Amino acid sequence: MSDELRPQIVVYALPDACAALQAAAAHDLHITLVSPAGAAAFAGPGWFRALVAQASAAVPQADFDAILDCAGSAGLAMAAMREGVAAICFDGPADVRAKIEDMAAQSGCVVAMIDYDQALDLDRCEDAAAACGDWLEQYQTGKIAENTV
Prior knowledge:
Layout: E1 8-10, H1 14-26, E2 30-34, H2 39-42, H3 45-58, E3 63-69, H4 74-83, E4 87-89, H5 94-107, E5 110-111, E6 120-121, H6 128-140
Parallel strand pairs: 1-2, 1-6, 2-3, 3-4, 4-5
Helix pairs in contact: 1-3, 1-6, 4-5
């Protein structure tokens, strides 16, 4: 995962993730699938890891990263690392964040940012495939600003 923020799409289930990845592949874009805010607490790291693995298997041509939101919970961040989640978002205190980043580096996990204000949230869309395609088209043509944090 690079330091550059890619277009982020909030996914809630496998059909959302597959729609996002199919649109990304069609537009030849690298995207980032992101969990709903605080999803580590209510869905769990295992759910997210499985969702990402199944979506990747279903759309193998897609180029993407995925980030699980652990909010400010160090315990959930560590559980996500143990579960093998590749990237997490942790917004706890700076001193705790430094420790989480160190543990993440040792476990091969990345601590990354999620910009929910700039992300496409598929919970607000009736047709995920159409929404992803339209949004990524607008992103590609510069009608939507790149994610910046």
